[in-house]
Amino acid sequence: MNEALLSNWWMVFLRAGGLLTLFPVFSAPVVTPRLRVALAALVAFLLAPAIPDVVITHWKLPDLAVIMAQEILVGLLLGFVCRMVFFALEIAGSIITAEIGLSLPPSFNPLTASQATIPGVLLNYLATVIWLCLDMHHWLLVGVHRTYALVPVGAAHLSETLIRSVLAWIGWLFLAAMQIAAPVLALSFLLSLVFSVLGRAVPQMNVFSSSFAIRILAGLLVFAAAIQVMGLHIMNHLRRLPEDLLRIAQVLGS
């Protein structure tokens, strides 16, 4: 029994370690690798007794190495799926910055350790707060546990359905970014239409230079006014994460 429990712990540790490598918030630079390893060990300690027993003593070393690599890759794929919402926020921030003409140098995003636009950083902070307030870190722990019923240890394999599902998620990523940035996009379209009419009506007016200040001011006002609507979109996408985990696990195990 102890041997099976230790084997379970090791396999869950590998999958949880791969998951936390790309998992939102926990993959931030402020969370050190040592802390991520400790969190993966804690998750393995909690989930190991609740999954079917895995006995690795009868496996040969090459087979064991393949299964270990498989579990790490499964965790990485699950973490990538969870991270897609935050990728969509970075794209939405870039769209908002481009549409309102806020041509400032990119800021450092401490959650992703990369350069990002200011609206993108604000949306990432908003998503992090919503994610914690919704208690999604606990729901995702439940989702990880349920993935073992759909894709047991050593049962994951690549398939055409998996590739199509990942591509569909990537396509959804751009759609989600457009939905979040929709208020600013609508404003940009209206301002372009208004200044196009003004350019026709008053040919001596320098529409291009005159529109900069109005576009930035109106864009910032609309961004501030629509932050609640953007938060609702972010909340809806975050609530789907446990279902997305189970969906990708089902494809992996089928």
Low-confidence stretches: none
Percentage of helical residues?
Answer: over 70%
What's the number of extended β-strand segments? 2
Q: Mind telling me the C-alpha Rg?
A: 23 Å
The shape, in one word, is: elongated
Q: Beta-strand percentage?
A: under 5%
Describe the biggest sheet? 2 strands, antiparallel
Strand arrangement in the largest pleated sheet: 1-2
Number of helices: 10
Mean pLDDT across residues:
81
Distance between the termini: 29 Å
What is the number of domains?
1
Question: What order do the SSEs take from the amino end to the carboxyl end, as H and E?
Answer: HHHEEHHHHHHH
Output the structural class.
mainly alpha
Written description of the protein model:
Helix content is about 75%, strand content about 0%. By secondary structure, the protein is mainly α. It has one domain. The longest helix has about 40 residues. It is elongated and about 85 Å long. The mean pLDDT is about 80.
Short description:
This protein is mainly alpha-helical. Helix content is 76%, strand content 2%. The chain has one domain (2-253).
